[in-house]
Amino acid sequence: MSLSPYVPIAGMFILAIVFAVFSVAVAPLLGPRRYNRAKLEAYECGIEPSPQPVSGGRFPVKFYLTAMLFIIFDVEIIFLYPWAVSFDALGTFGFVEMLLFIATVFIAYAYVWRRGGLDWD
Amino acid sequence: MSVNLAQETVSYAPAEGALSSFWLLIALPLVSAALLLLLGRRADRWGHFLGCLSVGVAFVLGLVYFFTLRGLEESSAELTLFSFMPVSELQVDVNLLYDPLSSVFVLLITGVGFLIHVYSIGYMAHDPGRRRFFAYLNLFVAAMLLLVLGGNYVMTFIGWEGVGLASYLLIAFWYDRPAAATAGKKAFLMNRVGDVGFLLAIFLMFATLGSVDFEDVFNGVPTLSEGTVLAIGLLLLLGACGKSGQFPLQAWLPDAMEGPTPVSALIHAATMVTAGVYLIARSHEIFSANETAQTVVVSVGAITLLIGCIIGCAKDDIKRVLAYSTVSQIGYMFLAVGLGGAAYALGIMHLLTHGFFKAGLFLGAGSVMHGMNDQTNIRRFGGLFRYMPITAVTFGLGYLAIIGIPPLAGYFSKDPIIAAAFARHGWTGWLFGGIALLGAGLTAFYMTRLFVLTFLGPKRWTEDITHPHESPATMTVPMILLAIGSVASGFLLSLGLVDYLTPSLGPETEVEHGPLSHLTVTLLTVGVSVIGAALAYLLFRRGTALEEQPARSPLVRAARANLYADTFNETVFELPGRLLTRALVYFDNRGIDGLVNGLAAGIGGGSSRLRRLQTGFVRSYALTILSGALVVTAALMAVTFGS
Amino acid sequence: MEELHLPPIDYAAIAPLLLVFGAGCVGVLVEAFVPRAWRYRVQVPLLLAGLVAALIALISVADKRVSTAGGALAIDGPALFLQGGLVALGIVSVLLIAERRVERGGAFVAQASVVAGTDSDRRQSSQPGATEVYPLTAFALGGMMLFCAANDLVTMFVALEVFSLPLYLLCALARRRRLLSQEASVKYFLLGAFSSAFFLYGVALLYGFAGTMSFTGLREAAAEAGSEDTLLFLGIAMLSVGLLFKAAMVPFHVWTPDVYQGAPTPVTGMMAACTKLAAFGGILRVFTVGFADINLDWEPILIAVAIATMLVGAVMAVTQTDIKRLLAYSSIANAGYVFTGVLALSEEGVAGTMFYLVAYGFTVLAAFAVVTLVRDADGEATHLSRWAGLGRRSPLFAGLFTVLMLAFAGIPLTSGFTSKFAVFSAALGADQVTLVIVGLISSAVLAFPYLRVVVLMYLSEPAEDTPTVSLPGVFTSLALVIGLVATIGLGVVPGPVLELAEQASSFIG
After folding, report:
1. Which of A64, B27, B353, B545 makes a 20 to 30 Å CA pair with C263?
2. Position B402 in a domain
3. Which residues in A lie closer than 8 A to residue C162 (C-beta atoms)?
4. Do A108 and C31 touch (CB under 8 A)?
5. C376: which strand partners?
6. B314 and B460 share a domain?
């Protein structure tokens, strides 16, 4: 069996699990317990926590939308890097292909723009 | 038995001349059925005439082809219409075969079929669905003709399923009766069991011989191993048992009597139920090549004929008695085709004579019901001879024919079968001969009971019937014609049928003699029948109680419960199936129905509760997928490292 | 610096793909720039034109057998046949999706993510539906076509995601029973993502094993490797899980009934017909090209999966009370029959499988088309008890549905018989006797639920509130006629299509 190269990996997994379990288990035992109002509130990445319905509520979908759009165009830029690096070697073919790729992304961009995806309200 | 058969090659001549158009036989009723269904109400007024006409013309054509075939030397005509499934090794054509065996079936189907069509005009006169009824009848005739004219097993199977479908439609024709609907379903499902057998046989032929053509299969039989031949034979037999209502798949046939009576006459007496016999006779090269397969066929026939007789004695419903008598008569046919050799032709002969007298008996029963407000309980008949003379006489002739009184049809066909059973070598001859003989006595008993309780003795009618009437001419004329057939067909067929069928069924025409001479067997059979009939007459000539009396012996109880066939099916097939289903349902989607029902109850209120439920389910689904993946991996690991 | 070899691209061979994706892209632009009132009238002809053009392009390149785009795509017989089937079935699906007469505004709502039961949700239920469904459908179909032609693992994964994502969204757009529809979408998405992860993990392991992504390279590497290579067998197992999920084989079928029930019926039809076809297209290629010469005994496991699929699908169908769930379980069982053809691992098996997929697709689309028509005040009446007595109310549609049920049950002279015959005889040719016997038994069991529907329609008294069958619009009528003609036609004269499938049954590479 050729499982031997995986033994270190398995060891690392075990180590990670042990560490995580240990930290979580030990923290309440060793740490001081001082509760105040601010500590019991939801933490929202620096934003003042907005009042929310009791059942848990929902996060405004606009955040997701913006985040997704960012990822899409971010990924596009990442694709442009290697092409830019080897622009010479790829020649006209690469240029045309890249134009097609950008055009495709711009179709999506046009859609998002025209249908109000970029408006916050 | 048949030793030399296998060495002779089977080959069918291509169709020429007049015979090259014999596909018309199937096309005529099929087109008529399509017209009747598609034209809808527009055809209501003349639809039944078109239905009759198409079958009538098919019968005339059948006669023309019959005489053309007699004039030919090869005695067969094969017609390839087009290629059905052309995939390199899987070559199935749409081809038809017309040979002596098919030709007699064509005449039986179209002839009896035509009479029953005519009878139905009167019988269904007041039914609003008459056009639809004729469309289904036509469809049935077309499918049945395809079954007997198919030139390979796939074509036969297509016809086979077609008749099953048409019979389902016809049994459930009166769909407002729950019993009819259930019976239709039962027939369809039990037939499916048989069909699986038939299909497996076809696949097996294809896998071992690379073809499903009759010619190739029959010529290839000697090259197969004994086990394969046995397997093909038994699988074909399973199919045949399903369609012909033989043990252990006999339970659907009597229930099928819920359909309109002409249907019972056409499908469940004269034609479709004999398809199993046709299949075995057609495949005689396969069955003759394996003695075990033959023994199984004989045993099935013998068991069934006894079952049919015993239950027939205990039933009070006129159509059910006839249905069980059909079961037992087909048992005789299976017995005959299982015996092999010359008895193949005897089985076919009994099939033909049975077609006449059983169709006549059913039409008679229909006529009685027609005059008695659809009463079917023979305890509430009696004394009808005076009111329905034509029905009584035609029914009586059919009755005498079925119990084998010479010189009526049944005598000529059943008697030789019993003799052939006795001629089987060894102790099995005595066993099967004895059973056949006992069956003859029992048949005489319950048929006499039926006849006496219906037509003779005191009136025991229900109050609402004041004056039973004879049926109209469209009903009586077919009955008279069938009665003539019941009288004369046996003698006529005994003159030449066996020789005529030789090209299809092999050259042996001499029935061997067993330990008992033919004369002895004849005397025994007639004697036993007369005793059975006399006993029944003495018991029932004064009528019987109006209600079913509590059974005194376990045999009667068992017989009334159809020998527990339904109970058996339920415990052996339905129960495990139901348990399995329930278990699977429990594990697979325990909460889904609750979820759906909850949704129906009200989307607004319970929405958050439902949402919580849903996430649970996705989790459990993911868990199923994960464990599936683990099982697949583990299994792969096991086969990899385990070996 | 090493010189780059630019891969030659056979544009004629991939023209059908480009046409379908192009139709999708133009569709997105239409959404962006065409006024709302005109979108429906532009989108439907556009997509249909794109699909018809793709079909014509496919016919014109029907004899091509090339590997193009640097070996990423194999435009060979099976790819072309399956793409043809996909486009043909896709056209019928689009006809169903485009229907707006049966339900005012179409079967879709404008926005998938609006919370069910809120005011805005109620408002959108009376507005015309989203026209984005057409480009989404185009991308889904294009992805499926790509999936059938993908000749390496990465292309295959990209194609898998391309056709899955639009489907997740389409599932959530049902106009009625919003909650059920959204639930279906979320389930499909989560479980789909889960199985994609398996697939991707399998791809990674196999790359680690072979050092190449292409199926041919994989086969060569696998033929040499010992049977105990961990990477290889783990990779195969993971990859299989991903593929079997898409094909809805037991035990990876759990999503099917819920999703089929919740999704808008036209989309359900498309999933049952097209997604199934694409998934098996991929399976055929992976198993007959990638792992053909493998020195690993994985057949028994797949046989077990096939048997379980046939049995569970058939048995579970018996107890269903919802017509869409019933059809879902029947599609699971049918996946088992198709897999029987795959496991024949022969050219007859490939031909039979492809024929089965196309024949089944037409029948199942027609069946779902009938489902869209049986309606009451709350939309489609899918509970079986509501179908009672339908045969008396509208004999035409009940008759039509009966023919389709008979086809599912495998009655001769329908495509159900010829296709089952083709796969089972191929499997028997490869000595898979057990599979065939189980298949026949399972199809005998499966006849029962179909029959129950027929019995219900004809043999029950129509209740006071029995739903009526809406008069279909032109699109649905056309879809129904095409489905019915294909079902009967492939049953009576299957010859030409079977021959076509046989000529197209050998993979390249």
Report:
1. A64
2. yes
3. none
4. no
5. C379
6. yes
The label of the residue with tokens 């898979």 reads C432
* Domain match, B398 and B529 both: yes
CA C273 to chain centre: 4
What is the per-residue pLDDT across B44-86, written as a single tens digit (0 to 9) for each? Answer: 778 888 888 999 999 999 888 888 888 777 777 888 888 787 7
Inside any domain, residue B1: no
Query: Touching check for C478 and chain A: CB below 8 Å?
Result: no
* Spatial distance between the Cα atoms of B621 and C189, rounded to a whole number of angstroms: 12
**Residue C413: per-residue pLDDT:** 86
Asked if the C-beta of A1 comes within 8 angstroms of chain C's C-beta atoms, the answer is yes
List the subunits that have 3+ CB pairs under 8 angstroms with A. Answer: C
- B124 contacts B117 by C-beta, under 8 angstroms: no
- Contact status of C6 with chain A (Cβ, < 8 Å): yes
CATH number of A4-114: 1.20.58
Q: Is C430 on the interface with B (CB under 8 A)?
A: no
In a shared domain, residues B580 and B624: no
For residues B490 and B604, membership in a common domain is answered with: no
**Structural contact between residues B344 and B418, judged by C-beta atoms closer than 8 angstroms:** no
Kindly state whether C406 is in contact with chain B, defined as any CB-CB distance less than 8 angstroms.
yes
C327 pLDDT higher than 50: yes
Instruction: Indicate if B544 and B643 belong to the same structural domain.
Output: no
Give the residue carrying structure tokens 């498309």. Answer: C270
Chain C residues closer than 8 Å to B637 by CB? 233
Nearest-Cα residue of chain C relative to residue B162: C412
**Tens-digit pLDDT string for chain A (121 aa):** 566 778 888 999 999 999 999 999 998 888 887 777 777 776 666 555 566 556 555 667 777 888 888 888 888 888 888 888 888 887 888 888 889 888 988 898 899 888 888 887 6
CA-based nearest residue in chain C for residue B178:
C459
Query: In Å, how far is C440's CA from the nearest CA of chain B?
Result: 6
Look up residue C212 and give its DSSP letter.
-
Q: Range with the lowest mean pLDDT among B18-22, B318-322, C57-61, C91-95? A: B18-22
Contact B198, B236 (CB under 8 A): yes
Q: Give residues 173 to 232 of C whose Cβ lies within 8 Å of A.
A: 228-230
Contact between chains at C29 and A58 (C-beta distance less than 8 A) = no
Does some domain include residue B416?
A: yes
Structural domain boundaries in chain C:
11-503
Give chain B's domain count: 3
| In-domain check, residue B312 | yes
Say what the pLDDT of residue B6 is: 41
**Minimal Cα distance from C188: which residue of B?**
B618
Domain that holds residue B351: 301-549
Say if the Cβ atoms of C187 and B614 lie within 8 Å.
yes
Task: Band the pLDDT of B251: cuts 50, 70, 90.
Answer: confident
For residues B450 and B573, membership in a common domain is answered with no
Which of C278, C248, C256, C273 minimizes the C-alpha distance to C95? C273
One domain, residues B469 and B577: no
Cα–Cα distance between B120 and B618 in angstroms, integer?
A: 59
Which residues, 6+ apart, have CB-to-CB distance to B73 below 8 Å?
A: none
